[in-house]
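Appendix B, example 12.
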Amino acid sequence: MSLAYQADSLAKLSNNILDGLPAKYNLCMILLRKELLHEAQECYSEMKDVSVQFDLPRYKFWNPSGLGKVALANKEYKKALNYFEEAQLYENTAIVNPAHLIVLRNNQAKAYSALQQTNRALDRVDDALKLIESYHSPLNNRYLRQTLRLKANVLEKAKFFERAANVYAQYIDLLEETELETKAILEQEAKSFYEAEQHKLQLALADQKLATQEVELKKLQQEKSLTLAYILVFIVTVFSALIFWYFQRQFRLSKVQYFSKDPLTGLFNRLYLHNRLEKLIADHKGFCLVTLDLYEFKKFNDKYGYLVGDEVLRQLAAAMKESFRESQDIIVRSGGEEFVILCVSPSAEGVEARLDTVKQKLLLKTKQMVDDEVKFNTKVIRYTHQGLTTLLVQIDNAFRGHSNRKQKSQNVA
């Protein structure tokens, strides 16, 4: 907590309000988890003023959501519902993790249940379950367990004991599944520990071998064969260094690959984009960005189902890989149906032609699947030595601009 306070204070002293917002957000969450409700409420209120001043949709979503949690902890259920409803107004324009939406629905259900509005509480829980079904995350089991337990509590409180018992049975099945997964993880950790011990043993044997070689070197020195001895030491040292470098490199590559790739499309994710942008900015290298999001993709999913929608996303990813220079340009799935292309060239020359190729390939693949077409919107953002936070805000604004154009088109229709 002290580090969070220090980061917030440094941001205020340097008058760096935008870059200080992530530290402020983390501080508010820590205060809420520590049940320092008065301090958490003041923290979220300060963050709300900044989000309104700079028109930041994500923080406009997070602020009332956090204030609603504070009101829920204070048992001010109607006040909490008002805050949660305010957060819902921004969930379609803010780029937020679906997990935040799941938590929001569950918190609304808790408030409605406390006010004995059982039907509304169950509606919110069912909304959360639908979000979990469409959300691909290793943490899905945990979110599902929390939501099922909440649903059982709501039903039990309303004296729907038979329905509550059925939901509890699903919850228990998930617990057992989690236990099996935990067991598998522990077995894997035990295996990794064994392999690490084996590696230590191999290193010890290598050290013993080196010790033996040192004895041999002494004999060579005694025989006045110093030149041969130095060559032997050099070869052994270089060989050992190469082996160590190879294993370290393989470990780093596997770690980066695991945390930086989107599991559905195989493209890089938003975290990887942040890291690359930071490096390019630090190295003073020119580049440009292209934002791309699918037009009315939610209606497409509702019409043909999420399995077809996922396949469309994979086909789009494959088309972009074929049309852009993947060894130089970086293609990122930012979230949902939103993508960002990082072009290492500061000019956007040739981008329109490649995007047109992507459009034609996607049209062909979609027609083969469902005899329909999926369109997308794009925007080019040029790097003019702005900071990382400003670039991220520009990306968010580009996606918001796409969303606003969709809304205007629907209103005209």
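The first strand starts at residue 268 and ends at 269. The chain has three domains: 2-183, 195-260, 268-412.
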